[in-house]
Amino acid sequence: RMKTAFVSTVSHELRTPLTAIKGYLEGLMDGVLTADPETYQQIHTEINRLQRLVNDLQELSQLESGAFQLEVKEVSPSTLLDTIQSNFANQFEEKNLQLVVEIKPNLPQILVDKDRIIQVLTNLVGNSLQYTPGNGKVVIKVLRENSNLLFSVSDTGIGISAEQLPNIFNRFYRTDKSRARASGGSGIGLTIAKALVQAHQGRIWAISDGEGKGSTFTFSIPIRK
Ligand code: ADP
Predict the structure, then answer these.
(1) What is the pLDDT, as a whole number, of residue 99?
(2) Which protein residues are within 6 Å of ligand 1, measured from CB?
(3) pLDDT digit string (tens) for 133-160?
């Protein structure tokens, strides 16, 4: 039954951009739409969405089937955050959002697959960027708690209601479907992040004081001795 439900959701998710692309093309063929840059841009946007969705699905299926290997090495948390900061600098500036990084001093290195943890951070920071209106602020913190490092990403964005919080790590879940769809979210990013964190024996969770009150996503990575 779960498999049927999954196939049905995927079909639905694929149909939405396909229907839009077909609509634009038919409009062009009938002469209802003019062949101007704006129309092509709209088609391009829908194709991007389709591509992102297919990429995310492939990634998710690899993660869920266990058909992937972590390439673990010792990494310092500051190296990870330097990468994130430079990858996102432009996008934050464009949206006039502040990106602040706070790393506690003398943190130990962790044994992780660097690219995968960067992907987790990218998904979280990318969401904060997407769901925080201009002039807001995103803070990334790293600290030690017992035998774990905790990475957290807090924003001053749209927040998440208490009823929706338990669902956001589920595949395809979006809190405000139209809003997320308008911005092209597939609802898979957090599912992928969770699978990657769990593959590192960590945990991931979210808290929010409610709609309009920002969100904080935190994940733990065990420190091995
Ligand atoms: P999407 O691609 O839609 O962002 P995700 O799996 O990354 O998919 O997130 C699932 C949903 O959780 C989003 O559609 C959004 O409704 C909600 N969400 C995720 N991050 C945030 C955030 N920082 N602030 C508010 N809502 C968020």
Answers:
(1) 98
(2) 123, 127-128, 131, 155, 157-160, 168, 173-176, 180, 185-191, 215
(3) 999 999 999 999 999 999 999 999 999 9
What whole-number distance in Å separates Cα of residue 122 and Cα of residue 126?
A: 6
User: 60, 95 in Cβ contact below 8 A?
Assistant: no
pLDDT the model gives residue 16: 86
- State how far the Cα of 9 lies from the Cα of 16, in Å rounded to an integer: 11
Both tokens of 62, joined, read 């690899």
3-state secondary structure of 131: coil
Alpha-carbon torsion, ordered 73, 77, 169, 88, to 10 deg: -110
Could you tell me the two tokens for 211?
A: 């709609």
Atom of ligand 1 nearest to the CA of 214: 24
Strand 148-155 and strand 137-145: pairing?
Answer: antiparallel
